[in-house]
Task: structure prediction
Amino acid sequence: MNLNADGFLGTSATVLSDISLLLGIFVGVLLTIGAVLAVLKKYEVHRWVQTTGVSINILQVLLIMIGSFIDTAAPGVPDNLNLAYYSVVSVHALIGISAFSFGTFVMLRGNNLVPHFMRFNNYKPYMRTAYGLYMLATLFGILTYHTWFIANSGTVEIAEVEVEEGEFSVPVANFLFNPTDIVIPVGTTVIWTNFDAAPHTVTADDFATFRSDTMLVNDVFTVTFDEVGEIPYFCEFHGSAGGFGMAGTIRVVPEGEAPELVSAGVPSDIALTPQPTPLPLPVEYFGQAPGTAAFRDVNGRSDQLLINAAIREPLPDGDGLFAFLISPDEAETLALGEMALAGEVSAILDYVSPTGDNLAGRYNRLVIAQAVSGSNPPEPGDNIVLEGIVPLEAHEALVELLATGADLPIINADIGAAGISAASSPGERGYAVGLRLQIDEMRRHMDHVVFNHEAGNSEGTQRHAEHIYNIIVGSEFETFGDVNGDGRAQNPGDGFGLLPNGDQLGYIEETIRAAQAAIDAPDTIPAVVAHAGHTLVSARNMAQWASEARGISFEIARGDPANITSVQIERLDTLIDWLLFGNDTNNDGFIAPIPGEGGSIAAYEHAQFAAGFGLAAPGEISNVLRNEPIATPDVLPPGATPEVTPEVVAPAETPEVASTPEVTPEVSAPAEPTSQE
Result:
């Protein structure tokens, strides 16, 4: 069973969401029955009923709900809590985790499975509290389901679509046809307008009744329906025939039997559904060593800076530490705010750009200054205690990876809606960023390949294989275009390609070139050499996988449909997973930036690490820039280990990368967590 297919309750939910809803209601019913049994003093039966209900809830939370919250809601919390989509589920999660924890404890006590000192004897208040929490969690679970999959919860206003009598407007936005299903009288003209930055099509399931060209942002497609009938349709990029993914239905009825159409000139509001966007970059971080500052992604690319500064001496009473970013030309200083002191050994700061600016692309120097606590100075002043810098020429190469790659295709200025920070558009995205975005798009189309193959739909299988092939080869490759022979060349990518094509090197080779340029820069430092080297190794891995994926996707798209095999599909699926996440060749549970393992996540996160900062005292920065060692303090902070090589270097690696030097607490490269598989 495909748990991510359309659900069975008639809403827009998936099978998994429908199962979770019914499980939650079932648990609520069981616990209510148990409560009644307690009132009737049938305590033994009550105990078994409650134990069963709580046990089912434990499985539901661990196997379904935690993963669902992380994947769908957590990325929008807390920034989007003003929208019902996020606020309702957040309340549900808070109540649910309380019910889960407290209810599990009460159930264990009822079965004498807790230590003696935790065993209460007055059951009533505990049982009633647990039951109340479970009922609240169940109600908010139902409300969450309604908000996500039934109601038009939050809305986002789109441009007004002018319609005349006999016309009906269907905005295409948030990767949905809005509304999904419509009923219209014979003779009505339906107008689809694409408000997404992503390309879409409007295609009847039979491919004959109607089929639009590729619709870019603001493109319009119209069809007049002169015959009674029901026509299912879908987007060829993000759905499949049969109602999978982005799909809708038009029911044409005789005059007088249809509901009243929307009046002309009324603005259209569409349900705010979070769009398919690239997975968080990277998937997971694993902590950060003292003496470092590392870039991360929150709302945009590299729009967060996490600072963990090691303090050598206690600050005088009333003083604090303030952080500042400085641009390469020193014309711009960004005050990040006062740092929080963590005891007497470190100070931390988590800064997120309120406008989604790409901080790694705009700044190459970090300064930490001492001033009166609460004063919030706009400039660092003279009392600088720590600083870090990425030298100019090395930084220029890293900017190509993270912010602005030369010669990239222009992308629509509204591309922020499709997952690229509006602050770095149009046309401004680094090679490592673009590489990841294109592979994310391939992953979505691979899901369609698998779905169509399992459903026996060779047309859909070959069409989405064409999409994958065109993303890989790029628009200047000789066989780019109509690979499956249906007379339409479709490419959901930006045309730059992963592999070399014509005058375009493609994202992988450009990533390798820019990483090598950072390594070879005359002013480079060991931290840049180490991390840019990891980006380079990961990109070389991807070149091999992309080359094989190109061949298989071409065979599937171009070959005889009768000869498409599950072996081909599974291998292509595996290769695209490797391109995205990497390949755990040594089965240690982690993806390291080493030959045969690192993929696009490793390439991207290590480009961020290379652009981060190791922090040193002002007098030691000149030594850092000359790649000379600096003084190591006599007393190391708790938990630190004396180390040996220059201070601004990469942190300790996984065992496979034995050549990477280690760091001291004072001056180190950004912490190097290894991506989890």
About this structure: The first strand starts at residue 155 and ends at 157.
